[in-house]
Amino acid sequence: MSIDLSIKIGSMTMKNPVTVASGTFGYGPEYAELIDLNRLGAITVKGICPEEHVGNQTPRTFETRGGMLNAIGLPGPGAQGFIDKYVPFLKQYNTPVIVNIWGKGMDDYGTVVDMLDGADTVSAYEINLSCPNVKEGGSAFGTDTDSFSRVIELVRAKTQKPIIPKLAPNVPNIGKFAKAAENAGADAISIMNTMPAMAINIETLEPELANKFGGLSGPPIKPIAIKLVFDAFKACSIPIIGMGGIFEPEDAIEFMIAGATSVAVGTANFVDPTTIDRVIDGIEAYLARKGLSAASELVGTVKA
Amino acid sequence: MKQEKATVLEHDNFQGEYRILRLAAPVVGPMVQPGQFLELQVPRLGERILRRPFSIYQAGPEGAAVLYKPVGRGTDAMAAIQVGDEVNIIGSLGNGYPEPDPNKLPVLVAGGYGNAALYILAERMEKKGIAFFGGRSAIDILLVKEFEALGWDVRPTTDDGSLGTQGLVTAAFDPWMKEQDIQSLEVFVCGPNPMLKAIGDRAIEHNFTAWLSLDKNMACGVGACLTCVIKRKTEDGWEWARCCKDGPIFESREILWDE
Hints:
Number of strands of chain B: 16
Radius of gyration of chain B: 18 Å
Strand content of chain A: 15-25%
Oligomer: heterodimer
CATH topology of chain A: TIM Barrel
Number of helices of chain A: 10
Structural class of chain B: alpha/beta
Strand order of the largest sheet of chain A: 3-14-13-10
Number of domains of chain B: 2
Largest sheet of chain B: 7 strands, antiparallel
Strand order of the largest sheet of chain B: 4-3-7-1-2-6-5
Number of strands of chain A: 14
Number of domains of chain A: 1
Shape of chain B: globular
Number of helices of chain B: 5
Strand content of chain B: 35-45%
Largest sheet of chain A: 4 strands, parallel
CATH class of the largest domain in chain B: Alpha Beta
CATH superfamily of the largest domain in chain B: Nucleotide-binding domain of ferredoxin-NADP reductase (FNR) module
Distance between the termini of chain B: 34 Å
């Protein structure tokens, strides 16, 4: 019996449920010599805003027990830079491209979509409403349901392509945001962004990151993300892309059982770029072992 | 750039605190260019997850070797690596040193075990020149015989005067430099950042070429995470350049040093 690994996010079909977390995979070329980009269900690129952005000072990352902090600050080439530099490269692959978009102000979200929407290579937008490391945008929109909904509605009015708001983990009720995203016209939601966090050097008394604070990623956040996906799945009926500390196939399978239709490998890319391959193979093997014929049959099957 | 499960052939004390790790890596070994590095997944690193970058001392068709000193959690955990262990590496990474200019006199400048990263370059260069190696003490000056065997004129300096000229590497380099046709020098540098800056400043002041191998904390090693960025001068200011992908070798004039 052949197993159908494909899933749908709005009108976008992914050949398997596995993508990468924005910011952990560059724009594609960085890992192209190490893994076959055609294997991925989708490539999610680093955040793009309308203009070039310089990002934070260094140090930008700090390794913690089991994970890492980052405060990169969304440096990037801007929408036109992305089209010029990376679209010709990404076009060579038959893998859909999810462009993560962000803005310093609300209007930026519309502007960046206007600039990118003509590129066929751009398959969908992940709307960053939850970056903990950029003062102007990101989390300012992600922790208040009114501005959260307005950004999604603004983007919805600009494009027919699937839109996927990325949710902050540090909200009291993730279900409210999941439902608000659905009501505002989102095709799916991503859960979760990194967890706001901090580390201090006890000799210098200074924060380990130039930005003082950063986002925690890696295995330590996985149980938090599983609970958020579980809660959001109960609250809305659009697909969820689950992420947070996926290092092994079993982690991805757990996300799907909790309610994720798709999963993203993040920090593990830095540790072992073959993780994506292993996760795809592992999901397929698990479905076979459980006698399931499609990845979608696994989604939300948790007995709770 | 390839990921490979390399087998440990040798893991021994080299000199003083320095250790040598020799790996059978038939995929990565032949790819190595002078000045490139490896990202190594340290076995039994416990609850720390990221790979560690190492410059490459020797490389060939069979594999590669790194010289290192325990300086933190990652390198401390490496003490447990045994011959026969499998070590996961990604390499070879970064842009190495450029092809040396045949019309110039090649000069190597290194601090501590930074000279290990210059060995492949020194070996493959047709023209051999002068090598200035600085360290705290005689025990920190590595590979003198090896570089001499390649035909290099090695000039050690030590902070305590236990070998060669007493002082920083510049204590030997400066008086020598002043007697040369300075603009015909091409200097290849690897060592701590203050030393890179000291040589880089001289290169700009006296108008010679200096290729510097920059060291900055890294995570991914392939240009994706944007951890290891440095400021590279542009026409109207500066931009971030990734040490791992755009470097680690930069010409002295490219770098905007932070105050």
